[in-house]
Specification:
It is a single chain. The protein is mostly helical and 137 residues long. It is built from 6 helices and no strands. The two termini are 27 Å apart.
Length: 137
């Protein structure tokens, strides 16, 4: 759940090359990302609430709070778009992260997807799974 403005600006920063927007600042980007994460988290809570009521589930408030903290925190890190380049460089996987991105001086994208996209989607699968395990415990 996010507005187009949040999607466009939650990760922009003048220092981040292709993601740069002249009017962006790190603080403005953080604000857009925080608003996106709040809407995302509220949507998750609503869905969990419906499931709990319809299926008569018992959920520990501590487990739910822990799960939501994991999910919202990691979603924020992913949304800022500075996390993955940092992780990729530390793991010596910078080449994979750059895979499929437009080449310098060219307006192209020589692949169907990018390493950045693959890392981003993997993150969004792994951490919700971890947070769901926390709820189940």
């Amino acid at each position: 759940m996010q507005t187009q403005t949040q999607a466009d600006h939650k990760g922009c920063d003048r220092k981040h090359g292709a993601l740069a927007h002249e009017h962006c600042s790190p603080w403005r980007s953080r604000w857009y990302c925080a608003k996106h994460v709040l809407a995302y988290g509220a949507t998750q809570l609503a869905a969990i609430g419906v499931l709990v009521l319809v299926l008569c589930l018992r959920v520990s408030p501590l487990a739910l709070a822990s799960s939501m903290a994991i999910n919202r925190g990691t979603h924020y890190l992913a949304g800022r778009r500075v996390t993955f380049p940092w992780i990729a460089e530390r793991l010596r996987s910078g080449d994979f992260y750059q895979l499929g991105m437009p080449r310098s001086g060219r307006d192209d994208n020589p692949s169907l997807g990018t390493g950045a996209y693959a890392l981003h989607q993997s993150w969004h699968i792994a951490f919700p799974f971890i947070s769901e395990v926390v709820i189940a415990l």
